[in-house]
Amino acid sequence: MDVILDAAFPFIQTKIRIHKIIKVQALKGWDIGSPMFGNYNIPLNIEQGDISLSVEKEGEGFLYKRECLGKKTKKALLTSNGEILLNPVEPLNVPKALTAYLLIAFEKALLIEPKATKKIFITFPVEIGVYINSAADSQLIDVFALTKQKFTLYGDPRNGIICRYWKSEVNTTPPSTNHLQEGIIELILSNTTSEWVEVSKAMFNGYGMKIWYNDNLVAMRAAMKLKAGGIAETDFEETPPENGMSNALEIYTTKKLSIASTKCVMEYGL
Question: Which of the residues 4, 11, 207, 256 has the least number of beta carbons within 10 Å of its own beta carbon?
């Protein structure tokens, strides 16, 4: 059973406004890299569409300020120097970390022939992580997103799994996306059974996500193995979809947690 819940939980819903004009301002010392993502020297100031982000000198430290879709945050950074890293992170942290699972519902169901392996492309929501880098390590200071958050329950109401919910078209070639809002998953579907299998969704474990990015694309590679009895298993690949892409610093990686498995088993319907 899938019950869709707006992230109003009681969080306030927001409307997304897409601006055609992109404005980026840089202060002295800001190393301009890829659009939005990359490493930047501080102080810095960015204004890009619905995002306003700055790190300004304040006393013996710095003041971090960010506004996105009307939501504001402000933090004091007690450091004498360093740099800021902006990169995509697991889409499981806004408005808060409620679950480690992402469920992507397909706009149309797929029928896969017996013993076949097929490649499709689906989208996923992008969340942007902000890190302060020092000589010792990297510390997450903020996460924000330009997409609306929804959640769903996968499975039985008493024993089901709460998942971040996203709906995607299914494509046989990579779709065009706004890389600050949507990423692309290259998904390999393998039907290991001797029967046709219908698939209408895919669920993923956030602890296994390997996110890659460049100037125009945020992407992951994953596999979904379809087994007998209506069960499927998903996991992520560690290689980039394209050469030259940068590996994002994922939030779950920085937590240095001991993870038993990065796979996700779907046993309550496909």
Answer: 256
> Which helix (H) or strand (E) covers residue 168, if one does?
strand 161-168
pLDDT tens across 11-63, in order?
333 332 323 223 333 333 323 333 689 999 999 999 988 999 999 999 999 99
What six digits make up the tokens of 17?
A: 């406004």
**Which pTM value belongs to this model?**
0.85
Pairing of strands 218-227, 182-191: parallel
Q: Which of 56, 213, 59 is nearest to 126 (CA)?
A: 213
Q: DSSP secondary-structure letter at 147?
A: S
Q: What angle do CA 150, 4, 71 make, to 5 degrees?
A: 20
The 10s digit of each residue's pLDDT in 142-179 is 999 999 999 999 999 988 999 999 999 999 999 999 99
Dist. CA 246–CA 211, nearest whole Å: 9
Q: What share of the chain is helix, strand, coil (3-state, %, to 5)?
A: 5, 50, 45
d(CA 69, CA 91): 17
Contact 89, 248 (CB under 8 A): yes
Are the C-beta atoms of 46 and 24 separated by less than 8 Å? yes
d(CA 125, CA 166): 7
